[in-house]
């Protein structure tokens, strides 16, 4: 792609240069080089806008949205991915040079962005549309991605049966295609873990980390995959492996400037400290507070609610009933507003 970029610049072929830069952005994002992913996506977007080419604009806007998502700028990602979706309505399908299945990708990533900030109804709507487009285009890979995205929305909301019902056929389809996608393995493994199917969960989550590492020592999603595996280890009673995994996830997120993924790892470290016997109160409180500092300004409302629930459990164990009730009320109010029934029921049993 670097060779293609050099040739396009030498020839002064600006349409092809925009296409190359958009694709380069995806390659940089895939290996965790987010600074260059953002830089090339912005260049592609600016060039496409100057040319007035709607196909290039749609692709560049979509790639820029992915890059913003990777660095935890979910407001920016949502704005760009919505623009990418809106481009579809500005021209007839017959006038587009992009393949039909391409539209599924923008809807899928928009669905995941909505889920991350707790807008689950919007996420389900876009995820459902992604599945519909992929099915109508009869494009297997896009169908896997669309089902995984919709499954991720249900997973974030705690709708485990719905998530599993999407991830399982997605995994089956990848095996039929002869490919392995870490995001599918990790999504299904995380759903199994929350459903109490820990042996199956750990096997899938370990495979996700191994496959992602085989692709690149670091790449988009790796910190999340490691965090989910560490969480499953904790649920299975392997506290030391959980600590090791959570610390690795934190190091990965910090090294590659992924503050949102850093927040997930910190929240898990808080949970691990809480589960110690006796609980490491100072560490748990510090980790939850640090996670909130990162999650709140990014609008990561589901994670914010989880952190408040963790603090409620912590303060209850230390006899601080008023502080515990305050955090519990915050968590349950947020869960109720977002329709996170699974988590709400768990919180109300505390």
Which helices and strands occur, and which strands form pairs?
Blueprint: H1 2-11, H2 14-30, H3 34-51, H4 54-70, H5 74-88, H6 102-116, H7 120-137, H8 140-157, H9 160-177, H10 182-194, H11 198-215, H12 222-235, H13 239-255, H14 259-275, H15 281-295, H16 301-317, H17 321-338, H18 341-348
Can you walk me through this structure?
The protein is mostly helical. The chain has a domain at 1-88: Serine Threonine Protein Phosphatase 5, Tetratricopeptide repeat (Alpha Horseshoe), CATH 1.25.40. It is built from 18 helices and no strands. The longest helix is centred in the first third of the chain and has 18 residues, at 34-51. The chain is globular. The model has no long low-confidence stretch (mean pLDDT 93).
Quickly list its features.
350 residues; mainly alpha; Serine Threonine Protein Phosphatase 5, Tetratricopeptide repeat; 81% helix
Q: What name is given to the CATH topology of the domain at 1-88?
A: Serine Threonine Protein Phosphatase 5, Tetratricopeptide repeat
Structural class: mainly alpha
Q: SSE order in H/E notation? A: HHHHHHHHHHHHHHHHHH
CATH superfamily annotation of the domain at 1-88: Tetratricopeptide repeat domain
- Discrete helix count: 18
CATH class of the domain at 1-88: Mainly Alpha
Helix content: over 70%
The parts where pLDDT drops under 50 for at least 5 residues are none
Which CATH architecture of the domain at 1-88 is right? Alpha Horseshoe
Give the overall form.
globular
- Give me the count of strands: 0
What does the largest sheet look like? none
Q: What is the distance, rounded to the nearest whole angstrom, between the alpha carbons of the first and last residues?
A: 54 Å
- Sheet-strand content, in percent, reads under 5%
Mean pLDDT: 93
Rounded Rg = 21 Å
């Amino acid at each position: 792609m670097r060779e293609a970029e050099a040739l396009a610049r030498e020839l002064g072929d600006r349409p092809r240069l925009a296409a190359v830069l958009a694709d380069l952005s995806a390659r940089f994002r895939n290996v965790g080089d987010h600074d260059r992913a953002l830089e090339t996506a912005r260049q592609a977007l600016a060039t496409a806008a100057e040319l007035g080419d709607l196909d290039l604009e749609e692709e560049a806007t979509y790639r820029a949205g992915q890059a913003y998502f990777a660095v935890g700028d979910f407001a920016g990602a949502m704005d760009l991915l919505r623009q990418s979706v809106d481009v579809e309505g500005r021209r007839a399908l017959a006038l587009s040079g992009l393949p039909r299945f391409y539209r599924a990708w923008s809807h899928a990533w928009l669905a995941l962005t909505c889920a991350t900030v707790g807008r689950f109804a919007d996420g389900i709507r876009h995820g459902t549309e992604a599945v519909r487009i992929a099915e109508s285009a009869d494009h297997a890979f896009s169908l896997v991605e669309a089902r995984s995205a919709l499954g991720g929305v249900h997973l974030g909301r705690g709708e485990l049966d719905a998530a599993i019902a999407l991830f399982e056929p997605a995994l089956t389809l990848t095996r039929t295609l002869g490919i392995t996608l870490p995001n599918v393995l990790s999504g299904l493994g995380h759903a199994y873990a929350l459903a109490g199917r820990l042996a199956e969960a750990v096997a899938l989550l370990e495979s996700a980390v191994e496959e992602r590492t085989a692709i690149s020592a670091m790449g988009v999603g790796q910190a999340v995959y490691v965090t989910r595996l560490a969480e499953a280890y904790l649920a299975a009673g392997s506290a030391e492996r959980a600590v090791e995994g959570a610390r690795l996830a934190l190091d990965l997120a910090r090294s590659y400037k992924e503050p949102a993924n850093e927040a997930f790892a910190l929240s898990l470290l808080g949970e691990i400290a809480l589960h110690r016997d006796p609980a490491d109160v100072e560490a748990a409180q510090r980790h939850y507070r640090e996670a909130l500092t990162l999650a709140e300004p990014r609008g990561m409302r589901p994670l914010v609610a989880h952190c408040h629930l963790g603090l409620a459990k912590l303060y209850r164990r230390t006899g601080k009933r008023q502080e515990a009730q305050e955090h519990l009320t915050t968590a349950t109010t947020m869960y109720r507003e977002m329709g996170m029934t699974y988590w709400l029921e768990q919180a109300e049993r505390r």
